[in-house]
Amino acid sequence: MDANELVRVYTVNEPTLAELIRAELHGEGIACEVSGENQAGFAGVITIEIFVRAQDADRARKFIEQHEPRLKSEAESE
User: Fold this and answer.
1) Residue 42 has pLDDT above 70, yes or no
2) pTM confidence score
3) What is the tens place of the pLDDT at every residue in 43-69?
4) Cβ(67)–Cβ(25) under 8 Å?
5) What is the 3-state secondary structure (H, E, C) of the chain?
6) Minimal CB count within 10 Å: which of 14, 43, 52, 76?
């Protein structure tokens, strides 16, 4: 696998949470892309995927895992 190839590291159903994760990853120096945040969900169900370069995938997954409770709480309060 190419180190710059995009790989999915996380999937969410909440656009606000996806944006918070994107901002946090960028703050950590991890470039990421979010896919699906503009879809109109059927009955409110949408799937938003977060992608990073393969070389950053492990670091991004660990960061999300460590900060997920705080980020979910922030997303719910917005």
Assistant:
1) no
2) 0.84
3) 556 789 999 999 999 999 999 999 988
4) no
5) CCCCCEEEEEEECCHHHHHHHHHHHHHCCCCEEEECCCCCCECCECCEEEEEEHHHHHHHHHHHHHHHHHHHHHHHHC
6) 43
